[in-house]
Every structure is written in structure tokens, then in C-alpha cells.
């Protein structure tokens, strides 16, 4: 976890934001109860489109220099990895275009990402047959959990670039996860370690009242 987290003024403001977001989960804020399905509409229920790109974090935006960056992979895998920046760029590179849906009700269409597809990453890591869950751990102490099935979708990316330029620090650079089919809290910024597990391990928001899966078309905000 982040040892260097010292709440200053910014930290205190963020603590309030976190507290109110946790309260939303208790109150069931933004739930519309509208029925929807992925093939019928692009904008999930209760969402509104934005053209800017809001920044959400816990009050720390870790500054990881590329020559000190590392991504490690552990748990039940045939190939535990410790990747430096060059190792990461040596993996097969792909581009994707996907929409963002944040649980705070903003969506942003047509984001162009570059990086390593989860499917290519999985080929390098080779999870053991008993693996059912994946946990992303980040440089700011954040964590979020998904199933191996969710992580294996064709559109999931370990992204280092957005719209042709390096992903900025505020948006999770050097590398963040992009999970387009789920609320954006599943898309861990500043990813540091990926654990492959045979049991579930709920992350930061999942233990604070947010849904374990977070499918926006089913409006799985809280749970
Ligand atoms: N490491 C880390 N990843 C994170 C978060 C965070 O606080 N720390 N916040 C999550 C939430 S709630 C959202 S909505 C998105 C926000 O990403 P953005 O700031 O690029 O819009 O990042 C997700 N990933
Ligand atoms: Mo979020």
C-alpha cells in the first residue's frame, strides 16, 4: 500500500469526496431502475455524455519515472513476470477504441487507446486452470477485482497511450487497465501488480458498497 500517503489539504478534500461517494452507495444514488441491454443502446441507463475527461483518484497521483516503473505478475500462473518498461513494450502492441462509463454518471465515447491486449498478456502469463479471479494493485494503494472471464474479453487493454500520446500521470500513466464493459473504477490507473487467484478479493470500492461486477448496462452501481 502507499506508505507516502500524507493527507494535506488536497488529501482532506479527497477524503470528503471518498466519504460522499461511499454515502452514494448507501443511498443508492443515481439508480434509475430503467431496463436496458447492451445491444439496444450505447449510453447505459442513468449516464450522461461528457466531452471532457474528468480525473478521479484517492488524492495521490503517483509519479513513476519510466526507468523505475515495474509491473509484476503473481499468483497462480505458469510465468510470474517482472516487467520493466522495455519488457512491456516488447509485448505485442495493439490499438483499441472504446467508451468510458464512470459510476458518477459521466460517459465519454470513442477513446483511442494503445498498449497490450489482455489476451496477449494472458498468453505470456499463462494462468493455471484453477484461476477464476484477477486483482489489479496500483502504485497509489488502490486495488480492484475482476473475474478472469471479464479480464479475458477482447477489448481489455493494458494501456500506455491515449489519442496517440503517452497516458498522462493524472489518468494513470505509465500504464493503466482499460475494461470498457464495466464502470471505470474497474480500470485501475498506475497499475503495479496483477494477481491471478482462485478466490475473489474485493478491492477499494468493492468493500465500500460498490458492486462486485459493475456492469453499466445492468446498472450494477452498488451491491
Ligand atoms: N489506481 C487507481 N485507479 C483508479 C482510481 C484510483 O483512485 N486509483 N479510481 C477509479 C475510478 S473511481 C475511476 S472513475 C477512474 C477514473 O479514471 P480517470 O481519472 O482517468 O478518469 O479510475 C479508476 N481507477
Ligand atoms: Mo469512478
Automatic annotation (TrEMBL):
Classification via Gene3D superfamilies: Oxidoreductase, molybdopterin-binding domain
Source species: Ferrovibrio terrae
Domain of life: Bacteria
InterPro entries on file: OxRdtase_Mopterin-bd_dom, OxRdtase_Mopterin-bd_sf
Stretches assigned to the Oxidoreductase molybdopterin-binding domain: 62-205
Region (Disordered): 29-48
Protein name (record): Sulfite oxidase-like oxidoreductase
Amino acid at each position: 500500500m502507499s506508505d507516502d500517503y500524507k493527507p494535506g489539504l488536497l488529501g482532506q478534500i479527497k477524503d470528503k469526496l471518498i466519504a460522499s461517494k461511499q454515502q452514494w452507495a448507501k443511498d443508492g444514488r443515481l439508480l434509475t431502475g430503467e431496463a436496458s441491454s447492451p445491444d439496444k443502446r450505447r449510453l447505459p441507463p442513468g449516464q450522461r455524455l461528457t466531452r471532457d475527461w474528468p480525473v478521479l483518484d484517492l488524492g495521490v497521483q503517483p509519479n513513476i519515472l519510466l526507468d523505475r516503473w515495474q509491473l509484476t505478475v503473481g499468483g497462480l500462473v505458469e510465468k510470474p513476470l517482472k516487467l520493466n518498461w522495455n519488457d512491456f513494450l516488447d509485448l505485442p502492441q495493439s490499438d483499441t477504441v472504446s467508451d468510458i462509463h464512470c459510476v458518477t454518471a459521466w460517459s465519454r465515447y470513442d477513446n483511442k487507446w494503445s498498449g497490450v491486449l489482455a489476451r496477449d498478456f494472458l498468453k505470456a502469463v499463462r494462468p493455471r486452470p484453477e484461476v477464476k479471479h484477477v486483482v489489479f494493485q496500483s502504485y497509489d494503494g488502490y486495488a480492484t477485482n475482476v473475474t478472469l472471464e471479464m479480464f479475458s474479453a477482447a477489448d481489455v487493454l493494458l494501456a500506455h497511450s491515449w489519442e496517440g500520446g503517452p497516458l498522462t500521470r493524472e489518468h494513470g500513466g505509465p500504464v493503466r487497465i482499460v475494461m470498457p464493459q464495466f464502470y471505470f473504477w474497474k480500470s485501475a490507473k498506475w497499475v503495479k501488480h496483477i494477481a491471478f487467484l482462485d478466490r475473489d478479493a474485493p478491492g477499494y470500492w468493492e468493500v465500500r458498497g460498490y458492486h462486485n461486477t459493475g456492469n453499466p448496462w445492468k446498472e450494477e452501481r452498488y451491491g
